[in-house]
Design a protein that fits this description.
Elements: H1 12-23, E1 27-31, E2 37-41, H2 42-58, E3 66-70, H3 75-86, E4 90-93, H4 100-110, E5 112-117, H5 122-128, E6 137-140, E7 156-158, H6 159-164, E8 180-186, E9 194-199, H7 200-211, E10 223-226, H8 238-245, E11 248-251, H9 258-268, E12 272-275, H10 277-289, E13 299-302, H11 309-319, E14 322-328, E15 335-338, H12 350-358, E16 362-363, E17 368-372, E18 387-392, E19 410-411, E20 417-427, E21 433-438, E22 443-445, E23 448-450, H13 452-460, E24 465-475, E25 479-488, H14 496-501, E26 515-518, H15 532-539, H16 542-546
Parallel strand pairs: 1-11, 3-4, 3-5, 4-8, 5-6, 6-7, 10-11, 10-12, 12-13, 13-14, 25-26
Antiparallel strand pairs: 1-2, 8-9, 14-15, 15-16, 17-18, 18-20, 19-20, 20-21, 22-23, 24-25
Bound molecules: adenosine monophosphate.
Length: about 550
């Protein structure tokens, strides 16, 4: 017997319709590429997204066609988010930090038909345009006054002219909620990038889940500033969640330095932000150097890579900003876990609570997880034993776009598919998951595993260390030993021996790194994560060469 409820497909356009109807006057503030601060509302967002949907139709975009963006976080980007997905096309956010070869591979693989870009990326678009035969229209996301006088991009269109030429009458089409809505490629370190193709249903369910109090706890009273780019797994879902909850949204545009961010935090009354650990280093450096405080920000989401506990302490103890440590993946839309204490943990000591918070956290409803041995046997949730983390759920991929790389899932005894995350983790009896490493970054010393994240976190707690990566270096006796690659804070003095001595009493002796290399900078990937494979290529033989 079926239930007798209405059939109401979970479509992304419904988020916008809700925002317009119930939070029409809520503000959207953007720092623009043109240099100024722009203000609009959800009501205007909805009207302009409808105009853009008409424009897309006029450009010949059909249901299922891919519409690409190369853009910072901003209101025009948000309009394209809703116009493309809402009208049945697939939004494809390209990461401008990728190498042009990788970028053109991805755009060609996706067969992008229209490419929207911020003026910042004009040189990049000029460099790749000739290599993108499927792209029929290039649109500069600006007004007539700021259009480039001469450009090598063929038939360059002006965003504002497209919007102004259209009516704001457009009825969002109704279709199957399983239809594709957006596409993100993983910036894999080996092999070609692979596409995660989200659906309307997966996106809306993910939005419900991340808004929950034990997840990112979003409300209409919030002012959200996503530092995480809209080209990094849809800014972790915040552009959708802002419409669902009616929160004010503040877009930093290209201004990701500490000073620009701080000005927006304070000027716009931001209550919540989100980003990878490396971006917060710049902000905290600026705030510290100028002896500033946050007057409205109460919490920040940190994920994408492990949040060093030292950074968490600085945010919480010094600035009163609570850190929500979250874990996820492109293949998971992306949120999987968030570290929020349970009621039963409220009597733990401050330090015990902090240790729980440092973990990657509990699964949000909609994500099922387990850890398994190399043979696929489930590992106990005792907080000690570790194994590969596997996940499943309605916003986890079942396969990659165009079947790239074959079937990614591993079947369990009952024939259910699980997605292997490639992360090595333990889960404690309360369900808090803790990642010790990416499986490819684990250091195997004499047959035993050493987790590089723990070793990096200790180095990051040293007052002279700005950034630290720990890699597996080849070793004659132990096969591999930990080697630290460290960037010192400007003007600070620190020797190899001092840093090694800092590990004493903080970790098992045999986990202590064998050596330290001081460098000017650690290479970062397109989403701000440390490129440890690059460091391994460079320093992986250092211990065998020096012995
Ligand atoms: P991506 O799909 O590029 O966002 O990368 C996903 C990967 O980032 C995960 O599989 C983890 O290895 C890593 N990651 C994401 N969040 C965290 C976190 N909070 N702690 C440790 N690693 C993380």
């Amino acid at each position: 017997m079926n239930g007798l409820m209405m059939q109401w497909p979970l479509l992304i356009s419904s988020l916008l319709v809700h925002a317009e109807r119930h939070h029409g006057e809520q503000e959207i503030v953007s720092r623009r590429v043109e240099g100024d601060i722009h203000r609009t509302t959800f009501r205007q967002l909805a009207a302009r997204a409808r105009r853009m949907a008409n424009a897309l139709a006029r450009l010949g975009v059909k249901s299922g066609d891919r519409v690409a963006t190369l853009a910072w976080n901003g209101y025009r980007h948000l309009e394209v988010y809703y116009a493309a997905s809402g009208s049945g096309a697939v939004l494809h956010t390209l990461n401008p930090r990728l190498h042009p070869d990788q970028l053109s591979y991805i755009a060609n693989h996706a067969e992008d038909k229209v490419l929207f870009f911020d003026l910042t990326f004009l040189p990049l678009v000029e460099a790749v345009a000739a290599r993108l035969p499927a792209v029929k229209h290039f649109v500069a996301m600006t007004d007539r006054a700021h259009m480039p006088a001469a450009s090598k991009v063929p038939n360059l269109l002006c965003y504002e002219e497209l919007v102004e030429a259209e009516s704001d009458a457009f009825a969002w089409p109704e279709f199957d909620e399983n239809q594709a809505s957006s596409l993100c490629y993983t910036s894999g370190t080996t092999g070609n990038p692979k596409g995660a193709l989200y659906s309307h249903r997966s996106t809306v369910l993910h939005t419900f889940a991340i808004a929950l109090p034990d997840a990112l706890s979003l409300a209409s009273r919030d002012v959200i500033l996503p530092v995480v780019p809209m080209f990094h797994v849809n800014a972790w879902g915040l552009p959708y969640a802002a419409c669902m909850t009616g929160a004010k949204i503040v877009f930093p545009g290209p201004g990701l330095d500490g000073k620009s961010l701080y000005e927006l935090f304070e000027g716009e009354g931001v209550t919540l932000s989100a980003g990878v650990p490396t971006v917060w280093q710049g902000l905290l450096g600026y705030v510290d150097a100028n002896d500033l405080r946050f007057s409205t920000m109460t919490r920040t989401i940190i994920g994408g890579s492990a949040c060093p506990p030292a950074m968490m302490r600085t945010f919480q103890d010094r600035y009163g900003v609570k850190v929500l440590h979250a874990w996820g993946m492109t293949e998971m839309s992306p949120v999987g876990t968030v570290s929020i204490l349970k009621g039963s943990q409220k009597n733990l000591s401050g330090e015990e609570q902090f240790q729980v918070q440092c973990k990657q956290g509990r699964a949000v409803y909609g994500v099922d997880m387990k850890i398994v041995t190399g043979q696929g046997e489930e590992v106990a949730w005792d907080g000690k034993a570790s194994g590969e983390l596997m996940v499943r759920g309605p916003w986890v991929i079942a396969e990659y776009f165009k079947g790239e790389g074959g079937d990614p899932l591993v079947k369990d005894g009952e024939g259910r598919g699980w997605f292997p995350t490639g992360d090595v983790a333990s889960i404690d009896p309360d369900g808090f998951m803790q990642i010790t490493d990416r499986s490819k970054d684990v250091i195997k010393s004499g047959g035993e595993w050493i987790g590089s994240i723990d070793l990096e976190n200790i180095a990051m707690a040293h007052p002279c260390v700005a950034m630290a990566a720990c890699i597996a270096a080849e070793h004659k006796k132990w096969d591999e030993r930990p080697l630290l690659v460290v960037v010192k804070k400007p003007g600070s003095e620190l020797t190899r021996d001092e840093l090694i001595a800092f590990y004493e009493g903080r970790i098992a002796k045999w986990w202590t790194p064998d050596d330290v290399v001081f460098v000017e900078a650690i290479p970062l990937g397109a989403t701000g994560k440390m490129l440890k494979n690059r460091l391994r290529e460079q320093y992986g033989k250092r211990l065998v060469e020096s012995s």
